[in-house]
Request: fold
Amino acid sequence: MSLLVRRTAAELVGTAFLVAAVVGSGVMASRLSPSDTGLALLENSIATGAALIALIVALQPVSASFNPVVTLVEKALGVIGWRTAGFLIAAQFIGGLVGAVLANLMFGLAPVAFSTHVRTGPGLWLGEVVATVGLLLVVFGAVRSGRADRVAFAVGGYIAAAYWFTSSTSFANPAVTVARIITDTFAGIAPASAPGFIVAQLVGGALGLLLIRVLYPSVITAVPTAEKEVIS
Reply:
């Protein structure tokens, strides 16, 4: 099996599980804490952060971006080519939709139900720009400074925190945003609200790319463990 096929499969499966975690934990949280939105958001954020850590640890040896913006930045930095980027991005969008449908079905809901949760306005769009810039700095800051082995924990922790410090609850992912259109649950987003979020994420992606080029102009190779022991 070719590497591209394996990477595409990993992105599809990983994004599906990520969205299932976001949507499923949102449903569970709203059922367990129906009168406490803050507690429900806490439950949702912890589950999402933990799922991200697990999925990245498991799939990073193959491919673990799960996010079209991350993949586009990888292309801009010369890590992958357009053909690979196209396959990975398509897999991310398909995987996200699969994950949303699975989450809906697991909780006895219609497989597809368009969200009525309106999320719009300059504050929320700015929140998505900030969330996306921060995510890219965390991902590529870890990878380009020779600490790729820590990226899973950095990303999981960042997203769990960004649920709380951004006004938009940190979608920061076009594939996840599209997937959340088809679930009328705690984590959903109304179809009319999604374009504004996606544009904001792409703006955040462009700004994040500029910062990455400034802060991490070159890639530092990780020092092997044996060499670290000798140095110490």
